[in-house]
Amino acid sequence: MVFARRFSARAFGAARGPSTSATSSTCRLLTTSAPRQNVSAPNTGSASGSASATAGSYRNLALGLLAVGLGANAYYLSQRDSKLQLDGPKAVISSGEYSYSNPQLPFEYGSKQDFEAAIEELKAYFTSQGEAWDDFVTTDEDELERRGLDENGHRSSSEGTKPSVAVYVRDTPDVQQVIRIANKYRMPIVPFSGGTSLEGHYIAPFAGISIDMSRMDKVIAFHPADGDIVVQAGIGWETVNQYCAKNGNQLFFPLDPGPGATIGGMIGTGCSGTNAVRYGTARGEHFLDMKVVLANGEIISTRGGGRARKSSAGFDIGKIIVGAEGTLGIVTEVTLRLAPKMPSDAVAVASFPNVEAASQTVNEILLSGVPVQCIELLDYKMIQSINESNLCGRKYDEKDSLFFKLSGGEAAVAEAKEAITRASVKFGARRESVEFETDKERAAKIWEGRKAALWAVAATNEAPGVKVWTTDVCVPISALPRLVRESQKDFQESGLTGTAIVGHAGDGNFHALIPFNASDPKELQTTTEVVGRLCERAQKLQGTCTGEHGVGMGKIEYLEKELPAATIRVMKAIKLALDPNNLLNPGKLYPHPAATASS
């Protein structure tokens, strides 16, 4: 058996490879052993005859040894309780030998007394810093209630979802100390800053600490010559762009998920926004470096403080932080890659007889290479809501419409105008319905309709108990017309007739804004089922249950339907490696039967 073990690697390699590999291995064995044997072989005949006979006998010996080795190797493998199974050319180690074959996230936290002790220690920390602790630590019910309500989703009550305490941090050392105290008392930590997330990311199903990043809103360093800026994670993307403009530079940060979003939250959800067609999403190279406090209080820098535009030094730790929803670490500082503003820009809007016509126009424009920055689809219900809200000071044609934002040189913008008009008319838009504007003020007035979409739906649905459930999915661009058409039908047949649709048509991202009566259990159930069907419809079209909002608590079951079980196991394995006690934002992102709050 010892022989079999020594021989198995070579024999197994020969057996797995092509037949030529086995032949060449045998030939090498013969050529190396024959000379050694010939030294001691007696000269019993002619040189050629003797060499031929000797070579023949050695060849037979080698082949015999190979056969014995393969047989012994096969027997040995068969006696290993099938732990190593051969499946064609692959060797698969059974799950029992893989330490993370079934990773389980723990949901075991401190007692009420532990949490109370932690709160007192948090107060003592800020006092030791020469601060009045009540400026940083609060258990005020209104503050906690705010963090337990998901105003942008369907959670109408904070019962069972509010934190025990809210802590305002100023810098990385503050975050580090809060995490150390949380570890000591086994207290969950939930990041909070802009409070604009849409899938319950910042609510606290296991109570604990709401770590408020909103005061970490400083610009640390600005390097216009290199096109980057270093900021604290609680700063808003709009503030970053205002800073760049105020300091006389033609740079800006192109990710624009929505008003109020902060850099840390944008990293957590893997956001994008209307500019994704031209500039990509948070998954790209927008975050050059991040300072992150891990669950054990250790501080890491994903690129060691480097500001190079690219790096091949190791794998990109930052890539697993983006989209992890605050479950792997708390981002405190970020180096953002900025983009130059184009010398000229313009806005256009066109109305179409139906969604299919609008989508065909989008495909034609994208394939033509027109320098488009944004292409937004607003369905007729959304246009109706905008007109009814009177938020824009103008009216739009109440049809399925496309809003365009263009940028580039003057010649490129003029070329884009002609291409958009030509494509729109080709697919059913009336030429006179295509508005195009290069004047900044008038262009901003046209674009106001797109910016007002969410607020318009909210403003026209202010009846008592009515909330607007905002959700998103994403599909290949060619599948968007079918997704919109089937979803519109589903909304109408389900009685959710006020539902309006807005989508980033340039990348297949679809948003539904669904007004519903949150106090009516039956209507809540209907809305929940409709959103579920929307997610499954997108997945069947080779899309995703969320294009930019993230998973949070709202879409965990659909993530499980979308990703293979092995992929989710790897996600959990990474989570456990970095946060073995599951303290960071528990109950979000990772499918788990225990991820519900205890009574």
Automatic annotation (TrEMBL):
Its EC number is 1.1.2.4. InterPro entries: FAD-bd_oxidored_4_C, FAD-bd_PCMH, FAD-bd_PCMH-like_sf, FAD-bd_PCMH_sub2, FAD-linked_Oxase-like_C, Oxid_FAD_bind_N, Vanillyl_alc_oxidase_C-sub2. Keywords: FAD, Flavoprotein, Mitochondrion, Oxidoreductase, Transit peptide. GO terms for cellular component: mitochondrion. It catalyses: (R)-lactate + 2 Fe(III)-[cytochrome c] = 2 Fe(II)-[cytochrome c] + pyruvate + 2 H(+). Its cofactor is FAD. It is an enzyme of class 1 (oxidoreductase). It comes from the Eukaryota. Residues 140-163 are annotated as: Disordered. Residues 144-157 have a biased composition (Basic and acidic residues). GO terms for molecular function: D-lactate dehydrogenase (cytochrome) activity; D-lactate dehydrogenase (NAD+) activity; FAD binding. It is found in: Mitochondrion. Residues 159-341 form the FAD-binding PCMH-type domain. GO terms for biological process: lactate catabolic process. Belongs to the FAD-binding oxidoreductase/transferase type 4 family. This is D-lactate dehydrogenase (cytochrome).
